[in-house]
Amino acid sequence: MVAALIPGSFDPPTNGHLDVIERCAGLFDRVLVAVVRNPAKAPMFSSDERVAMLTECTEHWPNVAIGSFSGLLVDYAEEENIDVIVKGLRAMTDFDYEFQMSQMNRHLSGIVTLFVATKPEYGYLSSSLVKQVAGLGGSIDKLVPPLVATAIEKRVSNE
Questions:
Q1: Domain 3-123, what fold?
Q2: What are the residue numbers of the active site?
Q3: Lower CB count within 10 Å: N or C terminus of the chain?
Q4: pLDDT tier at 96 (50, 70, 90 boundaries)?
């Protein structure tokens, strides 16, 4: 049984995130999607809200679970008996950063990181851009799942 961990901020979860999760669900016996809790950042959604959104968005994949963590990724991976970390890549700029992180994680714990290129239609998509488009009144319906779009629209209208 091979277990994969897909870590990220997921603030908010996008269709690009779900694409990577779906492909991993077809490749691995167990997939743990982990929301990083970073107290130094001011996210749009709390970690509990992001976990709830991801849980609902992934409920149709029986081998996918959602969790959250703070601290070192490799420590969380060890606690959860993870075999491999999976990171989605949109562009070479993602690769530069993620490659360095993968080498550090390998140095710290021996865990391997696999990279999954996003589908071309999601290559431009980021959580930051989704929040920016929504904040400026643009349509995000094709960028995020409907429940996430609704949550963002409510959050933006309250600000």
A1: Rossmann fold (3.40.50)
A2: 17, 41, 90, 127
A3: C
A4: confident
